[in-house]
Design goal:
InterPro entries: DHFR-like_dom_sf (IPR024072), RibDG_C (IPR002734), Riboflavin_Biosynth_HTPR (IPR050765). By secondary structure, the protein is of the alpha/beta class. The chain contains 6 helices and 10 strands, in the order ββαβαααββαβαββββ. The strands form 2 sheets. An 8-stranded mixed beta sheet has the order 5-4-3-6-1-7-10-9, with helices on both faces. A two-stranded antiparallel ribbon has the order 2-8.
Amino acid sequence: MRTIMLQTMVTLDGYAAGPDGALDWIEADDSALDDYLAGLLRGVAAQVYGRASYELLAQYWPGAQQNPATPGDAMLAPLVNGLPKLVLSSDPQVALPWQPARRIGGNLAGEIDELKSEDGRPIIVFAGVRTAQEFLRQDAVDELRLLVFPVLLGEGRRLFDGVPAQRLHLVDAEPFPKSGVVLHTYRRQ
């Protein structure tokens, strides 16, 4: 049976996006963090994105193999681009030009059950506050990985708004001293 991991970036005060969805607080020139992300991507079967996040990332990652913004992006681009992308959208006609990709969301509970019933490497929920919240509401997340950035936003979109209470078990806490980011890994109890 396969597991579903939620990997996301949050601020110290719990925001996953700033006002109007701004992500400009995500800044980390940290090769150790890039190595962690590369290892994570090498170990998963597919990535889950919300539609808006998919569309935003599709503007950058396909070209990042030839024109990366950072050395870390040069390393990550083939992994991000090569993995299948599952795009959560209620629109059955949503355009998915960044391949390989397919839409999920027609019957999310059933699709999650189907994904989890298969053997294989984990599926990673990687981008989108609403998508992360929906997977948490569906009680589908087996492992939660929070990259906590040393930033206080004070406003924006909180990751856990509208999510039911759950008890988690801390598996690991790994600091990335260069950037000040700390990875917190939790599993369900």
